[in-house]
Design a protein that fits this description.
Length: 132
Amino acid sequence: MPKGVSVSPGIMLQLWNRGSAGVSLSPARPAKGIFAMTKSKKKWSQDVTEHSNAMDLKEGVFKSDDPKKIARSIKHSAEHSDRRRSSPFRAAMSMLTFYINRAGEQLSKKRRGTLEKTKDELRKDFGRQPRH
């Protein structure tokens, strides 16, 4: 490790487990691998959110407290999208799952419960069996 470079123990463990191939600690060369991720605050999911060519959703669709209303809106978007590459059901479920995963720990238990119920409503709307 070059002098003056501090790396957290977690990063060191990742480097140890992966090997340090492709990772530069030299300030003269741009960082790659995990150092590039820590240097840049942008995550892949943020990039997808900002630049994705995915289907368009109605503004504020996830703000509703009614799982049926959310499911109807997502289903409508999925069925009328010209840009989806899979079935409307898969596109709708993927969009909802992406939103839930993107929100992560920021979702309250009540909100997460509403969105999980929305998955079951989507399944019903597409003629599939609910999981719960």
